[in-house]
Amino acid sequence: MGVATSAMLLYVAKSYRGYLRVGDLIIPFALLHYGVGYSLWGFQFQFLSSVFFMTLFIYFSFHYTQKAKNGFLSGAALALLAASLCGMNGVLFAITESIGMLVWLFYPRTTPRNVPAIAMFAVVLAIGALIWVKWVPSAASSVGGINSRVFIRYIYSLVPASMGVLSFQNTFFAFLTVSLLLTGMLAFMAQKLKSRSLTLDDYVLAIAALASLMVMISVAVGRSKAQGEWNNVLGMHYGLMSVFIPVCSWLIVSKWLPDRASSLVGIALAAMFYIAFIENAQWRYSVVNSAGEHQTQIVQALQAGTDAKVLADTYVNDFTIDTPQNRSDVANGITAFRADGATLYGGSR
């Protein structure tokens, strides 16, 4: 899915300008590096699928502008519907994009309004809103108020998190780069709105970047309330969903900047994301190499029948975050696996 997402965005880049630029290398570098969450944890499927279906929405929207067939808008609407079934972050993507498309379709113009398309995106919006209303928040939503300092720290770290490890090591530079891209994109969009020359392609890319920013703000609100201070692991956890901020902003900026300036910006961005790719690869291989002996030690202790509570107290951080409840859960889990005969945990079938 990561490769397919990268391929679709490269298609969009070529379709948008008519050709690819060296700066478009940020697409595979941001989506396929070794620090991206879905390469680390299985539960990341909900985030990867949200990004995949968001990209599919953009992809079908671009096909619609080329061929003006409602079937492609139907595909775009179905992609958003699928995104709304990929967890609450996907719901937020789908709601934001559906509202954006309805605004575009209702906007006064000389051509008749596309009633079937309006109906499709209205249905997607209604389903997303229903999921949101029926959703029962976790305990995280009721933990105190928002600490503005912590919230700002989360935003500061999440916006450039598509660069993975590099964004943790050089947060200011990474944040500045993505923020300048986003600001440039908004400036060009304001100019095109003023001159009434905004196209659907421009609009779709802009709202994708803003939807990604909206999801990051939502994450910052929830996590800053529930978890407190920033942890770099959260950047890997949520960073993939920030990818539309730099990518879509770059596509818009690169099309409307003078050719030489666009080339220079593209080369600088490609170099930066390439360095990020290398940094993530080095970090990943370092972790794998350093953890091998430790992981072998844990497996041997599990299979030797070491007391579950002792294992949980000693190795809790290898399973989850260290809290009294988590230690108890880990110990109970090991006991349950052994009772079921799981040989990895020291059981016998």
Automatic annotation (TrEMBL):
Q: Where are the transmembrane segments?
A: 41-60, 72-95, 115-136, 148-166, 172-191, 203-222, 234-253, 260-278
Keywords on record = Membrane, Transmembrane, Transmembrane helix
Q: Which residues form a coiled coil?
A: none
Name assigned to this protein:
Glycosyltransferase RgtA/B/C/D-like domain-containing protein
Q: Whose protein is this, by species? A: Paraburkholderia fungorum
